[in-house]
Amino acid sequence: MGLGFGRKESGSNVASFLLGAALPTALLIFLASDRLGEGLSSVSRSWGSAGRTQLPSADGAAPNTRDPEVEFAGLAELLPKVAMEDKTVILTPVNEAWARPGSLLDLYLESFKNGEDIAHLVNHVLVVALDSLGFDRCKAVHPHCYLLQVPTAGNMSSSKRFMSKEYLELVWTKLTFQQRDADMIWFRNPFRRIALYADMSCSSDDFDPSRAPMDQPLNTGLYYMKSTNRTIEMVKYWRAARARFPRQHDQQVFVRIRSELVSKLQVKIEPLDTVYFAGFCEYHDDPERICTMHADCCIGLENKVHDLGDMVADWKRYTSLTPEERKKKMKGDGFKWTYPARCRKSSHWRKPSDEHKG
Fold first, then answer.
1. Cα–Cα 20 to 30 A to 46, which of 19, 170, 241, 269?
2. How far apart are CA 107 and CA 44, in angstroms?
3. Where is the composition biased (Polar residues) (predicted)?
């Protein structure tokens, strides 16, 4: 969800780092200023069009060829305008379908206005459009938009059927720019709940504190990543692993290789608690602690918009109460989020406890 860059190293190096990663919702990336440099620029040549990508292989073998560097015209000038004082930028991607009026982009941006003390954060959101129609719509509703020139023959504008060839190309393209999906709403500042000692903090489909970190069902819909030599290698390794697992999207590949990332690259990965970083896979009826809600465990754009809209309405009703009324509400019949029926039905959701016994 966030991105930082150093004083001397400008947007071109930042763009180089972004070329190494992936997309689902809002990505939290922090680029440590003392780690930017030539190590980042090597990543910028690691991506090309479908079927022609040459990356460092997962077993360490060097590729035979490299694709031409992807250009990020104007990004170096744009990033300083969006960055916070600590050089953090919130990244989220859209295409035309997600950017239509009343769709996910509107829900996402409006959530900053409806959240608690986070209205200012919307000024640090960089929306990355994957097509020209999405870019035009973004410019109509938000001051910071960037058009990612995608070197693929595929149509990036329409909603994609889950796990179709076009869907897989879309999510791997998003990984290329290292961002997260916009199918998320914000309630309060999530940065206070991120473990800064980890190389990568990642959301979970469900969270059990008794599990070891790598036993959590990680979901790359949202993650926070520092830019270090280790995480740069991690991102390249992740991209390269796509060839080993054809017909799988970026999150599925990440889950398959996460133990390799830890053992081979010594990456520290920290799962995020669903009490604060909730999703339709697992959420808690605790509006006093929730930071974000992600429309995971959901297939279909209309289903995501509908069920997220219900959550927005629940939040507005709750926050319209006085502090005394909130306390009475929690002590009385309690607070309940509207059940995300459409999304859970679409994904054939099952209770997490049924899936992770033993």
1. 269
2. 32
3. 45-56
